[in-house]
Design a protein that fits this description.
It is a single chain. The chain has about 230 residues and is mainly beta. It has a single domain, classed as Porin (Beta Barrel). Helix content is about 5%, strand content about 70%. It has 2 helices and 12 strands, in the order ββαβββαβββββββ. The strands form 3 sheets. It has an 8-stranded antiparallel barrel with strand order 2-3-4-5-6-7-8-11. The longest helix has 8 residues. It is elongated and about 80 Å long. It starts with 6 loop residues before the first strand and ends in a 6-residue tail after the last strand.
Length: about 230
């Protein structure tokens, strides 16, 4: 049999499946950078943990909490601060479902942070025309607020165990102490004297699958190759 054609189109034969099965998970994690730093500098303790839950293949909810105990001293003053902080928000996964498969996450977390803390200056000295003056600022309670954006990556290393990191970009709303008595250190935020603060966090996470969903996968357009001429098939 002889078949002739002026032109024909060769299409890719492989196509992604219509749906993929994604396990939704609850994650319980701990931030490990703070305790490691405390081993080398016991003037600064930060301990933080979180729980998060997948709502679907892209969106999740996040709730975190932590404790901070900070001490700083110079030749003419000493500063003490300690308190609790809470963070709540959402996580957005930018990976396609067939790439993530419930095991990988690359995206951004958006948080609102609330910090309840005390700070005091037990002693400080300053000089004026009459000599050196020694004074102090007594301990007081404050409530501060901030916003946080945390782009990062998480990967499941073993069954139900993940590791990850994030870069934390925080925008100060209010320290709770007024502009004239801004805290040197703001638990959960960082330097109270900075409108924008930065940090990096590393996490260990335990994953608890609670549900599986089927996610429709958007098909990619197949590549097309056009050839002209005659073809003979015998």
């Amino acid at each position: 049999m002889l078949l002739s054609a002026g032109s024909f189109i060769v299409r890719a034969q492989t196509e992604p499946p219509d749906t993929v099965e994604i396990p939704l998970k609850i994650r319980i994690g701990a931030e490990v950078t703070g305790p490691v730093i405390y081993l080398t500098d016991n003037n600064n303790l930060n301990a933080e943990g979180f729980i998060s839950a997948d709502l679907n293949e892209r969106w999740g909810v996040f709730l975190g909490a932590g404790y901070s105990d900070f001490r700083y001293s110079q030749y003419n003053y000493e500063y003490l601060s300690k308190g609790l902080f809470l963070k709540a928000g959402v996580d957005i996964n930018f990976l396609r479902p067939e790439k993530a498969m419930g095991k990988y996450w690359a995206g951004i977390g958006l948080r609102y942070g609330l910090s309840s803390f005390t700070y005091e200056v037990p002693v400080f000295e300053f000089e004026n025309y009459w000599g050196t003056i020694t004074s102090s600022i007594p301990s007081s309670d404050y409530l501060g607020h901030y916003l946080e954006a945390s782009p990062g990556f998480k990967a499941e290393m073993f069954r139900n165990f993940s590791m990850g990191w994030s870069v934390n970009i925080r925008r100060l709303i209010y320290t709770g102490a007024g502009k004239d008595l801004r805290p040197i250190y703001f638990p959960g935020y960082g330097s109270g004297g900075e409108t924008i603060s930065y940090g990096i966090s590393y996490y260990l996470m335990w994953n608890i699958p609670y549900k599986k969903i089927n996610v429709l996968v958007k098909k990619e357009e197949p590549e097309e190759t056009e050839e002209t001429g005659e073809s003979e098939i015998r």
